[in-house]
Amino acid sequence: MPRPVAHHDFGPHSDAARLVLVSGVSQHAYNAVSVMSRLGAFLRRVDRASDEAHLTGRVIIVPGVLPVEGSGPRTDRDYSPSPELLELTAGGYCKVVISAGDDDLNHAPHVSLQGPEDDERETACLFGLPVVEWEAGRGGGDSLAAAWKQTGGESFLLRAGRRGILEPSLCEDVFRALVGFMSRIGLLVGVELGEEGDLHYFGSSQSYVLSCRCSGFFVPVRPAGAWLQAGDLVGCVYDPFDGETLQEVRAPMSGLMSAIRHNPITRSGAPVAHLHSTRVR
Fold first, then answer.
1. Shortest CA distance to 165 belongs to which of 103, 72, 110?
2. Which residue has the higher pLDDT, 70 or 277?
3. pTM score, two decimals?
4. Which of 17, 97, 106, 186 could bond to 92 as cystine, CB 3.0-4.6 Å?
């Protein structure tokens, strides 16, 4: 029998959902689950309040979902969203999945787009986070976000952190970004926001994947979210037996490093970092 999807449903239930938020389908997306559960508690208080703070539309939140039986164990892209989850979320106009992305990369909070429409580009800027656009097949993706493309409306992948690790300070940044987003689109009113950060939008021609030239033990020297100058050292690949340096990975251009490899065991051709240039190539 179909398994119902546990979710929160706020605002006027007679309307189609204006915003749908889903945590990454991996059972180890702890940052996403933490943010979603906290946001659910926050909106429950707003929904029950009689003061100026209120929702102007319907919001559906899915704090955590289980993968379909028999699906692969490693990344969000290995999982197929269940028919029940698609049925629940497909009717939403603006749909967001929060994911840690690849197992081997640690992501600074940002919005990742693949093949966006012009309206999606504009809406993405309202999250108040860096926005990164990738060409199809590059930079990773998400099976749920891809399925949403067929349902109309706008869909977004928000990446933050890495799988299996809970980072409270990162969760705070993502929580504030989502509250700010709801306020900017007029969905949440009566909530005071702090200062907004600088907007950075990187087109697909500005986004690069840095890779290893050899197998070995990778040790990063810069965190995700760092701004680099051309030639800056990103990390080194060492021989795990004798400790010799096999490769120095350096930034080929200046820009934002949105993701850095955290799994030290690497092979030739494996991604080391995602870099987004301040210049269009």
1. 103
2. 277
3. 0.85
4. 17
